[in-house]
Amino acid sequence: MRIKRPTAVEVARAKAALAKFVDTTDAETRAVLKEFPTLVEVRVPRPNSAIVPGLAPFFRQKHQQNVAVAKQGKAKILFMGDSITDFWRNDNGPFAGKKVFEESFGKWNVANFGIAGYTTQGVLYRLQNGEGEGINPKAIMLMIGTNNTGRNTAPEIAEGIGAIVLDMQKRFIDSKILLHAVFPRGKADDPVRGKIAEINKAISRLHDGDRIHYLDIGEKFLDEDGNIPPDVMVDSLHPSQKGYEIWAKAVKQPLENLMRDR
């Protein structure tokens, strides 16, 4: 799942080769390159921000609330993600998931660590700074990545999700992970759909049928034209109550199976 990047030795070799090539050019070209050195240069791939743990200040309060829940060590299931997971808590408004949550998962001790606006790097930070300590869930439901689509490439996002899964495997050694494909968003012809498909193709390879169970329920949210009906996701991103009903129906049995298998 890691993106291949050049080593320091390989970068140095490339720079030496470029310098040697520039020395063979004519004097006029060398003068231009001396004045504008960035016209020809060895460009090292940018760091992948999706795997660099980070917490924005305005998320700190919710993070601390999650840390307090983790320390109690009571949760048997962990929901981890962004606003799509966070809004299981909403009891009113267009993105109300609470009623469905209580009907579908109320008998289970679920810790909902979804935080609206979160990214892969945010989840990594949270796991490494308290949310992954003291808790020993039987099953984890992870759905993350959509908030990275505006700033990261598909391979970068897939690497970020892979880093989270690896961290969870090491941190929660007895837990089973239900890894969701990133949900569809936007209209059928929105370019982001292609990026999401690429992400999901990559992370589907994490499925091992043992500790990691990949699940793609995206088509359940779509109509025959590939669009998301407004009664399912009014903004083509966040589930409505009907959307949460679709989600709950699709994952209840898989979660039960994972808890039973542990």
From TrEMBL:
Coiled-coil ranges from the UniProt annotation: none
Matches recorded under Pfam families: Lipase_GDSL_2
Sequence ranges assigned to domain SGNH hydrolase-type esterase in this UniProt record: 79-246
Molecular function terms from GO: phosphatidylcholine lysophospholipase activity
Record-linked InterPro entries: Ester_Hydrolysis_Enzymes, SGNH_hydro, SGNH_hydro_sf
Domain of life: Bacteria
PANTHER family: SGNH HYDROLASE-TYPE ESTERASE DOMAIN-CONTAINING PROTEIN, THIOESTERASE 1/PROTEASE 1/LYSOPHOSPHOLIPASE L1
Record protein name field: Lipolytic protein G-D-S-L family
UniProt source species: Rhodopirellula europaea SH398
